[in-house]
Amino acid sequence: MVALLRITDLAKAYTSPRGDVPALAGMFLEVRGDEFVCVVGPSGCGKSTLLRLVAGLSEPTEGKVSYMNWTQAPRRAMVFQDPGLFPWLSVLDNVAFGLETQGVARDERRDRARELLKRMGLESFAQHYPHELSGGMRQKAAIARALVVEPDILLMDEPFRALDAQTRLILQEELLRLVEERPLMVLFVTHDIEEAILLGDRVVVLSGRPAHVLTEVIVPLGRPRHLTEGSHPEIEELRWRIWSLLKPEMSLAPGPRGGGA
Ligand SMILES: Nc1ncnc2c1ncn2[C@@H]1O[C@H](COP(=O)(O)OP(=O)(O)O)[C@@H](O)[C@H]1O
Ligand SMILES: [Mg+2]
After folding, report:
1. Was domain 1-74+152-261 assigned CATH 3.40.50.300?
2. Ligand 1 binding pocket mutation candidate from 15, 27, 38, 48 (most atoms within 8 A of CB)
3. b or e along 42-81 (b: 16 or more beta carbons within 10 Å of the residue's beta carbon)?
4. Where residue 252 falls among pLDDT bands split at 50, 70, 90?
């Protein structure tokens, strides 16, 4: 039996004195335990809300998030746009921190953190502090901190958005390599259609707020995957197909790479 994440009729509304904001409504989605699914949608439609619900950081107003056929409750880890490293901890201790809540002993925490930094080519910066790293390296450290717990589900909320184009390409390549080493589920939110196609096995397109799933598109690229494959004509066609679905959902529609923010 395949391990699944199943989202059933999920709704989330935020209440405030200025009125209620429905962020998600009637969302259905299933993701397999070894799938890399990218989620695109207009700015403010409810993408971060969806990830927070899956992470268990927030409770739905209606519907549910369930996990089917896992041998134990799946471990989830999240990576945000802002690396959110502790400035007073070294890179090594920041990464090891991910294991602290799991009750792993200090020496083992550091060993596992060191191992992961090595896998990510950050070992020579283990004793550095976050402010001594570039933006790309900080985000790599944040990814290491998420992966060190060996998550079954990795939730990524526009993790490369703040990076320059070249650094983003390097981190995208790196992420592809990392997820190909060990099967896990990745739910990757991005406003960038191209990024969604280059990384995902499937792209889920969300409607404007309150978000529901408009459509799902299978990406016809295998793995291991290289970013250069993104220049195939069929990929170009896919990009335009997704954009034509997304555009009417955006109140301000500046162009396929604009994100509408
Ligand atoms: N904690 C919150 N309290 C009130 N409203 C919120 C909160 N978080 C998000 N929202 C609102 O919910 C909607 C969806 O937000 P979000 O999930 O962050 O969208 P996205 O990530 O797609 O840009 C927005 O209108 C936002 O203003
Ligand atoms: Mg967001």
Report:
1. yes
2. 48
3. bebbbbbbbbbbbbeebebbebebebeeeeeeeebbbbbb
4. low
